[in-house]
Design brief:
It contains seven helices and five strands. It has 190 residues and is α+β, with helices and mostly antiparallel strands.
Length: 190
């Protein structure tokens, strides 16, 4: 169905959803049959500020997705459909949907897109199993810090060894022990 066939009063809705598809990092299509209004409200709250969950009309949403350049979702718009538009961390949104679906089996993830690539329901479950972006960045920073500390210790080791050797030679010379370096060698050591 082309946009020309859309009733004039629905054009604004299509334009709004087209912008949501364009401005989102990810869009997850779900079925929600059997969820109460209170459960939908709870789901919206659990997804946080960076994810907007909307019950949609299949025909209008399909048109909006196609206008946004996303045609991988056409088969998912059957039956009751709602879309989670994710503008923040897609891992956090996937975790929120997965956790809510565990407690409320009426919520079924059909699939979606992430950065323009189609993902199946199983792909979103795998995405939900990842650690959040903040945790991954913290682990990366910790690894980099450990590597830098190891490098600093490696570079410092020869200098420390030289200083300990020079101190040992100086102590030995002060004690008048055998093997005292010749004057030319002593000047070079200092």
């Amino acid at each position: 169905m082309a946009r020309e066939q859309v009733a004039p009063d629905k054009i604004a809705a299509v334009e709004e959803m087209t912008e949501k598809f364009r401005n989102s990092n990810a869009a997850v299509v779900t079925a929600y049959t059997g969820l109460t209004v209170a459960q939908l409200k709870e789901l919206r709250r659990s997804l946080g500020e960076n994810t907007q969950y909307r019950v949609v009309k299949n025909t209008l949403t399909k048109i909006a997705a196609n206008e946004a350049g996303i045609n991988q979702l056409d088969d998912l718009f059957q039956g009751s459909s709602a879309v989670a538009f994710v503008t923040g961390d897609p891992v956090a949104a996937a975790k929120g949907l997965r956790d809510f679906a565990k407690d409320n089996p009426a919520l079924v993830i059909k699939g979606g897109v992430l950065d323009g690539k189609a993902l199946s329901a199983d792909d979103f479950k795998k995405l939900a199993d990842l650690e959040s972006r903040e945790v991954l960045l913290a682990k990366l920073a910790g690894g980099m810090k450990a590597s830098m500390a190891k490098a600093a210790a490696t570079f410092q080791a020869p200098l420390s060894k030289f200083v300990r050797t020079a101190d040992a030679l100086r102590d030995k010379r002060e004690q008048g022990g055998a093997g005292t370096p010749a004057p030319a060698e002593a000047e070079a050591a200092e």
